[in-house]
Amino acid sequence: MTLRIDMHAHFFPTISREEAERADQPGVPWLAVAEDGESGMIMLDGRPFRPVSRPLWDPVRRLEQMDAQGIDAQLMCATPVMFGYRYDAPAALQWAQRMNDKALELCSVAPHRLMALAQVPLQDIELACREASRAVAAGHRGVQIGNHVGPRDLDDEALVRFLCHCAQEGIPVLVHPWDMMTDGRMKRWMLPWLVAMPAETQLGILSLILSGAFERIPRSLRLCFAHGGGSFAFLLGRVDNAWLHRDIVREDCPNLPSSYVDRFSVDSAVFDAGALRLLVDVMGEERVLLGSDYPYPLGEQKIGALVENHPDLGERARRLILGGNAARFFNLPADGSGDE
Fold it and tell me: Taking 80 as the threshold, does the pLDDT of residue 88 lie above it?
């Protein structure tokens, strides 16, 4: 039986309004659970931010759905609104520690099947490095970071230093887009999620490639980008063409951009057979990991179905993408459990 590990799923703990207020920082989110206990609303700045359902905060319900979908293990990470990158650094550290501890509490229900990726106070790199190491020592399987902190993209010297720390400590990193670029033009129809979110991910990847940051980051770094790497794979030919013909594109990047695809992985959340085929062609079958974005509506509703039913993927590729690649990326045993 093929191992199935969903490495991109989200959680949001039952943070009360009072707990959020005690943080005494701007925009601390909290969860309003409906009377029926089955639905809820993430609240932000006193306003409804996103409707959610019980599996987001209830590990027992999550496990029931994993069983129904044949998922052996799932790695959970913070809903990006929880990052707290706008908080004062000391408060952000305390917040990250609380959220990371809550994540492990959720996982404790079935630690061999539910595992967590930590969040860190990325606005202060020393604190971020410290919390990444503490969280992994406490049981987290890696860290999730946003693709930028304010105007600082991943090529920022401090963020590169954090990635180097993770490489040296053997800490896997998932990069998730957040706080999407928009000046108000993308007002409706979830356009920030449909247009800007893929662009944010491509921006994160290209900022590492074209800046020369990958020349300074150890090759041992296990780095993965969510949502299939956004628009990266589809537009990589355009980037190579620009590098070949415009010196301002290659001034800090010594090698053809497409030669860096072996420096990172992506998840499989692309929702289209043609897109997945292109993604595997560009990245290679060993650098695409099953990721669903569960339990949100923009995620894959039948986790792994796109990979399982793809007409052009061979048995080896299916086996790697559904679980083998994630097991290797996160140092999990062959059965996908959290037991070493």
Answer: yes
CATH code at 85?
A: 3.20.20.140
Tokens of 280: 């595997």
Q: How far apart are CA 13 and CA 9, in angstroms?
A: 13
Query: In the beta sheet, which residues pair with residue 145?
Result: 175
The two structure tokens encoding residue 63: 């496990």
Domain with 184, as residue range(s), is: 5-11+59-329
Residue 118: which of 66, 77, 59, 63 has the closest Cα? 77
The predicted model scores a pTM of 0.95
Does residue 261 belong to any structural domain of this protein?
A: yes
pLDDT above 90 for 208:
yes
Does residue 262 fall inside a structural domain? yes
Does residue 133 lie in a domain region?
Answer: yes
Helix ranges restricted to H, the chain: 17-22, 59-69, 89-107, 125-138, 157-169, 191, 197-210, 213-216, 232-245, 247-250, 273-283, 305-308, 315-319, 325-329
Count: domains in the chain:
1
| Cα(327)–Cα(3) distance, integer angstroms | 9
Tens digit of pLDDT for each residue in 274-299? Answer: 999 999 999 999 999 999 999 998 99
